[in-house]
Amino acid sequence: MSSRQQSKAAARQARVLREAQTRAAAARRRRLQALAATILTAVALGSVAVALTSGGSSANASSGGKLNGALVSSSLFAGIPQHGTVLGQPNAPVRIIEFADLQCPYCQEYTAQALPSLVTQYVRTGKVQMQFENLSFIGPDSVEAGHYAAAAAAQNKLWNFVDLMYLNQGTENTGYATPAYLRRLLQATPGLNVPAALSASQAPAAGEALSQSTRLAAQDGINSTPSFLIGRVGAPLRQFQPPTLTAAPFAAVLNSLLGGSK
Fold first, then answer.
1. How far is CA 88 from CA 2, 20, 46, 83, in A?
2. Angle 158-167/70-77 helices, nearest 10 degrees?
3. Residue 121 lies in domain
């Protein structure tokens, strides 16, 4: 191939790459705009609308099949203190706040790839405390699941419920988060009073919990999921957007905040 042909081929490849990047950026902007609109609306109204959903799902768990990862999830959080939306020892020196939507596939990716290692190495050892803020902006399934998550949080079992939700996540906005499916997640959450949680999921406090998360996101300039605030307790928390949703970039930041200790 002549140098001229090589130049043309390189130019074509560069053009194709730019077009692909432009399409990806446009898709991300649409998702961010949806989240931003949700946040602004919720702040203006002071609440998040409650939307009920029904219908089928492609997820095996929602159709009565076996739940994925129930035993592994139970083991991951066993013995670690939970208080509302917070996981970990109250005197942990470093804090992570996660902003996520229970339907978000990228949030599920973080939960599957990074969270187990971070919980085992940093939270269980008392070095890091985690807080989960539920942004239910993707659709009705997000809101419905968010109410059940808030009910689990009222019994200090949020992290178990959220983990099970991600391990059994269906396709966005397919109606898979039915009451029957969400009840099964509650039933698989160790030590949870299921009837009390079902009642709490329909109470105004569950909706207010989602509103509070949305207001916090607006206050901290959060405009995508998952997003993270990380810092030492008593110091300002800073936004952290990892290059990959694996444990490694989080570990690097945490080790730095902890003075290099692991």
1. 63, 41, 30, 8
2. 150
3. 45-257
How many domains are there within the chain? 1
Q: How confident is the model at residue 35 (pLDDT cuts 50, 70, 90)?
A: low
- On whether residue 38 sits in a domain, the answer given is no
Q: Measured on CA atoms in the order 34, 36, 39, 40, is the torsion positive or negative?
A: negative
Q: How confident is the model at residue 223 (pLDDT cuts 50, 70, 90)?
A: confident
Look at residue 28 and tell me if it is in a domain.
Answer: no
Q: Is the pLDDT of residue 56 over 50?
A: no
The domain that contains 173 carries what CATH number? Answer: 3.40.30.10
Query: Looking at residue 66, what is its pLDDT?
Result: 78
Q: Is residue 178 part of a domain?
A: yes
* Per-residue pLDDT tens over the stretch 159-185: 999 999 999 999 999 999 999 999 999
Do the domain assignments include residue 14?
A: no
User: Helix/strand/coil (H, E, C) string of the chain?
Assistant: CCHHHHHHHHHHHHHHHHHHHHHHHHHHHHHHHHHHHHHHHHHHHCCCCCCCCCCCCCCCHHHCCCCCCHHHHHHHHCCCCEECCEECCCCCCEEEEEEECCCCHHHHHHHHHCHHHHHHHHHCCCCEEEEEEECCCCCHHHHHHHHHHHHHHHCCCHHHHHHHHHHCCCCCCCCCCCHHHHHHHHHCCCCCCHHHHHHHHCCHHHHHHHHHHHHHHHHCCCCCCCEEEEEECCCCCEEECCCCCCHHHHHHHHHHHCCCCC
